Recover the amino acids of this structure.
């Protein structure tokens, strides 16, 4: 790759105690949690709206479970989603338009929290191994924002990557990552006759045949694109709607902008093909139509940052506990959407016991003053397929934000953080961390 040497004075936009990069599920929880601890926080988001894939990616329902008392409980309440222990299994999708308003108000209510929208992070400011600030892009040009501690909730681990921290991508055998998707909502569904299907673990029947076996058969017969063999139809909070998580494009590296547009075109065409299939072959869907769809590519997997501990599937299957736990009773199947084919191959679905996520998974091995959050925390390809889920990202974000504030108050880096004080602060906010 050719290089161009760039030298320019960049104005400083401000200084905060904590910078949170990314306004998705993990970033919102990190920013609010840090602000509630009394430190000054800035939340930096590359899009013009908060919520990340919960809103712009149409990722609904809010899947997964964590221990009681985390910010999951608050968010389900403000979104009007029933709060019960089955929410991760029933797959009820939240109202995305309501979420846009509710999440904005949720963040705006915090007095110690500033928000910079349409402000992507493009580089970092370093002093040795210490990260002191971020370089962001604005309509007025590049700006520098300084902070004592930075939370990387970018999803893609951008900040950690810019600092030179080691990362991994994809599965070990071939580097392939889970496919990208465009999710969308359909309306005018006849609830008296229409089925719902939450995913590959669902055995709902259609005319005496398992629905997912029916769609797989139709894909083989050419009635559906082959990659859409698994058709997932989630109920929403509104009767007559379904949230659809089915479109799929394999072999996409979502960090490469040249690959994004071809994926977008393909997936938009898949949406049209799926609606036509439902109208023709599935009872209750004869008059269905697209109500709305996501405005950005749904990305399941990119960078996983190497931390002081790498969470693995053995931890999850055993329901392992850790003394430095900052998330307790995380639970979701190891949910790998086939990187080289359709659906979720039976052999890669693995059930877990409620497991802990230790603080060390949030601490990158190389960079000081940086805390990981969301799907970029330290874990294997297979483990990532469980903890990447929205509800677990809420809890990881909350832990990251509380920890960042504790580090500011203690005058220490995350690597030297007093874990017991982080845990005490989380428990003081109501989070259940231990039996």
């Amino acid at each position: 790759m050719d290089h161009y040497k760039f030298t320019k004075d960049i104005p400083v936009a401000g200084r905060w105690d904590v910078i949170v990069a990314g306004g998705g599920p993990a970033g919102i929880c990190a920013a609010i949690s840090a602000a509630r601890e009394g430190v000054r926080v800035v939340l930096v988001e590359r899009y013009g709206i908060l919520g990340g894939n919960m809103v712009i990616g149409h990722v609904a329902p809010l899947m997964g479970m964590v221990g009681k008392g985390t910010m999951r409980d608050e968010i389900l309440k403000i979104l009007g989603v029933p709060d019960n222990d089955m929410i991760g299994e029933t797959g009820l999708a939240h109202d995305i338009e309501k979420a846009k308003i509710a999440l904005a108000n949720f963040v705006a209510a915090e007095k110690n929290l500033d928000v910079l929208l349409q402000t992507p992070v493009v580089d970092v400011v370093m002093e040795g191994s210490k990260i002191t600030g971020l370089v962001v892009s604005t309509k007025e040009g590049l700006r520098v924002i300084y902070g004592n501690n930075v939370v990387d909730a970018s999803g893609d681990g951008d900040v950690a990557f810019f600092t030179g921290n080691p990362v991994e991508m994809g599965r070990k055998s071939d580097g392939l990552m889970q496919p990208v998707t465009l999710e969308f909502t359909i309306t005018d569904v006849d609830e008296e006759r229409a089925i719902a299907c939450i995913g590959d673990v669902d055995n709902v029947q259609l005319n005496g045949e398992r629905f997912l076996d029916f769609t797989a058969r139709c894909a083989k017969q050419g009635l559906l694109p082959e990659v859409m063999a698994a058709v997932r139809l989630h109920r929403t909070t509104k009767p007559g709607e379904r949230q659809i998580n089915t479109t799929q494009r394999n072999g996409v590296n979502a960090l490469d902008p040249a690959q994004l547009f071809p994926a977008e075109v393909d997936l938009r065409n898949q949406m049209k093909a799926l609606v036509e299939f439902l109208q023709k072959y599935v009872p209750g869907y004869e008059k269905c139509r697209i109500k709305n769809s996501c405005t950005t590519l749904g990305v399941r997997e990119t960078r996983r940052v190497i931390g002081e501990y790498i969470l693995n599937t053995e931890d999850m299957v055993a329901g392992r506990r850790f003394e430095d736990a900052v998330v307790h009773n995380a639970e979701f199947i190891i949910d790998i959407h086939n990187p080289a084919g359709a659906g979720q191959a039976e052999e890669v679905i693995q059930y877990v016991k409620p497991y802990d996520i230790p603080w060390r998974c949030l601490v990158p091995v190389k960079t000081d003053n940086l805390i990981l959050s969301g799907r970029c925390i330290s874990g294997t390809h297979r483990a990532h397929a469980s903890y990447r889920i929205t509800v677990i990202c809420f809890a990881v974000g909350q832990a990251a934000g509380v920890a960042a504030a504790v580090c500011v108050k203690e005058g220490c880096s995350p690597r030297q953080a007093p874990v017991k004080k982080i845990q005490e602060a989380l428990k003081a906010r109501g989070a259940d961390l231990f039996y």
